[in-house]
Write a structure and sequence with these properties.
Blueprint lengths: L16 E6 L2 E9 L4 H12 L16 E3 L4 E2 L6 E3 L6 H13 L2
Antiparallel strand pairs: 1-2, 1-5, 2-3, 3-4
Length: 104
């Protein structure tokens, strides 16, 4: 698989509530950052090749989201992120938004 994703295959947007699987748990989280697109990967690769940043190369581990909960953040692989079903309190939603805003 070539590094980077087609934009049309990125299922979620920043701010979306999702379920994130981790080992034998599934937790509600909020998307904070998206996987790299092919164009983003190619731009980063060009910088690596110009030696502006150390070359690390891309692999499947770059195919991940960044997601926040009220207590931590994770970098789940795309296949561990699922659409959120159910409801969430306004208070919890506000806490998630506040946490995400701190990272900007």
């Amino acid at each position: 698989m070539a590094p980077g994703r087609e934009e049309r295959t990125i299922r979620f947007k920043v701010g979306d509530l999702v379920w994130v699987r981790r080992f034998d748990r599934i937790d509600p989280m909020q998307i904070g950052a998206l996987p790299m697109t092919k164009s983003e990967y190619n731009a980063r690769k060009a910088k690596w090749q110009d030696k502006k940043v150390p070359y690390r190369g891309g692999d499947f581990s770059d195919d991940c989201y960044m997601a926040y909960s009220c207590v931590d953040h994770r970098h789940p692989q795309c296949w561990d992120v699922f659409p959120f079903t159910g409801t969430i309190s306004k208070r919890t939603r506000a806490r998630l938004e506040k946490i995400r805003a701190l990272d900007k």
